[in-house]
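Researcher: Please generate the 3D structure of the following complex. Treat every line as part of one assembly.
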Amino acid sequence: MTENTPTRLDCGKTIEELSAYLAADRLPPNPDIDTCPECLSALDGLDHVAQLSRDLIARDIGRQSDPPESWITTIMSNIAQEVRSGRSLPLRHDNPEVTLSITEGAVRALVRSVGDGIDGVVIGRCRIDGDAETLDAPVQVTITASILWGRSPQDLSEVLRGRVHDALRQHTDLRVAAVNIVIDDLHHIIAESQITAESPIITESEDPT
Amino acid sequence: MAPTGEDGADSPWEDVSDGTLVGRAADGDVAAFETLVRRHAPMMRAFAARMLGSVSAADDVVQDSFLIAWRQLPTLHDPAAVKAWLMKITSRQALSCLRGRPFDRAVPERECAVPPELQPESVVIRNAQLRALAAALEAVSEDQRQCWLLREVAGLSYEQIAEELRIRPSAVRGKLARARASIYARMEGWR
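Model: Done. Output below.
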């Protein structure tokens, strides 16, 4: 067998032709191929080779040695130099000469830490919408969260909203018009479960009095 | 529920989805990003090693890929699709590495830890099959192998591959067809 000799099936089709048919996602449909048992069996074989490539990588993964811890540390120290601080959110101060502010990144970290402190909650994103750089301008805080499978989304989001409100009141001067909670994920069902944000399970929002 | 312990190896976030972790990481949470690194690095390293034919070059490429991923995370539209997105970044970095410096391919065919006589026959056959595939993959031309790995392993579309390789989608289709036919022919006896 040489590289340039096309392998021809008894029905007359070459493997190259069939492979091109597969590469075109079997479009447009070719009845000659789709009804020929020999072609169909070769197509299966070609498909199988593709599956094997993924199996090969899976085997490589199983056999490769773990990267040294220093390899991970290098990545983490590189990214740590690129902090995402976001906007500067002003804080009140009695002395008008003094400018005080807290970064948006720090507020998000605060929200995460408050939310993660609730058993069964893992915070995802935290967005602060509105003119947060101006004191007294109303802002809306929207938080996505994943909750532990089996827990009540209503109960947990109620607790979460309350604690986030308290924390923001205590540590920032944001005028929080609303804290919106979107439970868009569950954890502890099956590993790597991927319930996506496309279908939020529950969305709650409430304007505080 | 924050990660505890020094190495983070058994992070309590093990069951937390990519989407949630990506959201946190995009907001600047370094620990969530580390969990994503540990979760996806094995796939990226194995793929890059096959692309580059070098484990150490693959490790460099994957490190760079994660740095790029960190910078671009806030722009990721579908956080749950982070795996495919990371593979795309890895593909791009591996290709630019290949363009930058040609080096000898030497993918080590790691020997199996379990002696063949102790393995069930199906496993022996399977390993032989995968070895045959690895050899077939090494035998096709460089550009065909790249197209093949980008399509079948990294899961890129023809259009994406064309963009990365700077060729037309029809040329990608042709290379893939030839790669598949050639690998199939070399796998005779194992299919």
